[in-house]
Amino acid sequence: MRKRLLRSLALFFLPPVGALFIRLFYYSSKRYFHLPEDVPQEPIIVACWHGDLFYLPYLYLKLRDKPNANVVISEHFDGQIIAKITRYFRIGTIHGSTTRGGAKVLIAAMKSLKNGIDIGITPDGPKGPRHEVADGIVVMAQKTNAKIITLSCVPKSYWQFKSWDRFTIPKPFTRLDFYASEALDVSGMELEEAKTLIKEKLLIHDY
User: What pLDDT does 175 receive?
Assistant: First the structure.
């Protein structure tokens, strides 16, 4: 009972506080965006590492004049908090993961793409291994012919947790370099070839 109460309180208070801190830290920093020349008008899949989620909503909002996205978020407690925070940035969620209950989540994500909604995914989430691309993103892209754009944020100074994903929080008043890759077409690739390409694009600006 006590644990349930504490979780309920956390789900009520943490998301608005978290969203506020993200905004304060973001606007205190010097921001530089490195974007592709062309972004497909049709629905895309945007991908980032699980540990680099902190500022990625802002980078997505630079890619789209009218944001319309659902992010695949785990059903774990931390995933519920992240899902509530993303709503403050006009981004929806699909609960689950492409590794646990994968078929259900893949179907929901592909339905979103076919309905004109972008999909956000962390290819190494929700539990790792860190910086390893799971099959789900490739399956999703190939079955819907959606292009993939990888996203990353490189802060000059930051805090990094000792969690499996080395979750990173940029420090306020630092320099932030945001990167978005060109649209990747993996439709004709073998599974491992596509996963390797996605991983290479996500690691190109790793720190």
Answer: 97
Beta strand 168-170 pairing with 158-160: antiparallel
Amino acid at 175: R
- Angle, to 10 degrees, between the axis of helix 191-203 and the axis of helix 136-144? 110
**What predicted TM-score, i.e. pTM, was given to this entire model?**
0.93
CA–chain centroid gap for 181, Å, is: 14
Helices and strands (DSSP H and E) totals, the chain: 6, 9
Using alpha carbons, select from 21, 19, 111 the residue that is nearest to residue 72: 111
Question: Can you tell me which residue has the tokens 């978005």?
Answer: 180
What is the amino acid identity at position 155?
P
Rounded to whole angstroms, the Cα distance separating 95 from 101 reads 10
**Three-state secondary-structure class, residue 170:** strand
pLDDT digits over 92-104, tens only? Answer: 999 876 655 578 8
